[in-house]
From TrEMBL:
It comes from the Bacteria. Keywords: Membrane, Transmembrane, Transmembrane helix. The lineage of its organism: Bacteria, Pseudomonadati, Bacteroidota, Bacteroidia, Marinilabiliales. The chain crosses the membrane at residues 7-27, 47-68, 80-101, 121-141. This is DUF4149 domain-containing protein.
């Protein structure tokens, strides 16, 4: 797999996250018969599956990058910063934001009212940053490939 493959993984990942986080997440509540508890239960399943799949995308990306760098080359600071940022955002979502959101959803499903929280907003901001980083990193990878062939 070459850098194009790595860039494809990033763009596919960005589309995957965008479809779920920016479309499915709120659209399911518009469907007839979907109650708040039912929608939250579906959301918990979907976001857990998405999160696991994102770790697979991250692993595939790392394999693609390693595979494309048969000779040792330096990774530029921008690429490294974006990659580290992606790992940090994904880890924060996995180990902090999703568990807190799942707990809040469980409270609502059980008929309780959770207190005020900004966690949902933090998760949304993390999604926007992640998708933007994925597109920017993919663009940088494809530009490097184009510049090498000039």
């Amino acid at each position: 797999m070459q850098k194009r493959g790595a860039a494809f993984i990033l763009v596919f990942w960005a589309g995957f996250v965008s479809a779920i986080s920016f479309l499915e997440a709120w659209l399911k509540f518009k469907a007839p018969g979907i109650t708040l508890p039912l929608g939250l239960g579906i959301g918990k399943l979907v976001f857990a599956a998405m999160n696991r799949t994102e770790w697979v995308f991250l692993l595939l990306f790392v394999v693609a990058v390693v595979w494309s760098r048969r000779s040792p080359k330096k990774i530029n600071r921008t690429q490294l910063s974006l990659f580290v940022g992606l790992v940090v955002v994904l880890a924060v979502q996995t180990f902090w934001l999703l568990p807190v959101l799942n707990h809040r959803a469980d409270l609502i499903i059980a008929g309780q009212v959770p207190g005020e929280s900004l966690v949902h907003i933090f998760y949304g901001i993390a999604e926007v940053l992640k998708v933007a980083s994925l597109f920017v990193l993919a663009f940088i990878l494809t530009r490097q490939k184009a510049e090498i062939h000039r």
